[in-house]
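Supplementary Note 3. Input sequence used for the single-chain structure prediction.
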Amino acid sequence: MKPSDTIDVLICVHSQDHEHDMLLQRALESLARQSYDNFKTIVVLDECHEDTKGIAQHYTDVLNIRIIERPNKQGLAAAKNYGLKFCESDWVAYLDADDQWMDCKLEIQRQFLLNHPDVDFCGTEAWDFENGVMRPNCFAVGQYETHEDIVKRLPQENILCHGSMMIRTRAIDSLGGYSANKSLLGREDYDLWQRAAANGFKFVKIPERLYIYSLNTSVPR
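The predicted structure, written as C-alpha cells, is reproduced below.
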C-alpha cells in the first residue's frame, strides 16, 4: 500500500426483518466509530425489505455511502461481485452486515499495509460474539499469520475470516472475483483464497483481534 491509496468498504445486506436491520445499524455504527475515516462505503441491498434502505440512508453523509439495490438475490458471491463493480478504490475492505469492527481496525490494518507494501490480502484475528459476550475465536493470536504459514495451511482449512480482510482491488479483479458455482455456496471466500495463493498473491494476518464475528445471525443466501 502507498500513502495515497484509497479504500472502499463493501457491505452486502440481505435483510428481511427488523432484527437484521438492527444488526446492519450496529455494523454501520462500528464504521462510524473508526479512528481512520478516509474511506467510502458501498452498501449492496440484496433483496431487502422496504425498511432496510432507510437504515443505510441515515449514514449516507457520515460514511460517504453509495447504496446499490438488487431486487432478486442470487447468492452472496453474486452480491459481492456486483458490489465490486462499484468499488473504485485501490483497496476493498469487507464488513458482513451482522458483524462489527473494533474502533481501530481500519487504522491498524492500513498502517500495517503501509509498512508491508508487498501484501495483497490482509486479514486480522477475530472475536466471536454471542448474547452480548465476546470470546476469542478458534484461532490463537500468533497462529497462521505469516504468508508461508497461511498458504501451507489453506489446503486443509479456511483460516481467514472474510469480514476481516482488506484486499488489493486489482488482485480480486485479476482473479475474476468470487466464484458463483453453486457447489461452492458458503465457501466462496475459501475458493478465492486458494486461487489467490495459487497465483502468487501475498497473504498476511495481523496478530490482533480487530473483527467481531456474530454467531447465529446469518441469513440464507
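The chain has a mean pLDDT of 92. The longest strand covers residues 203-214.
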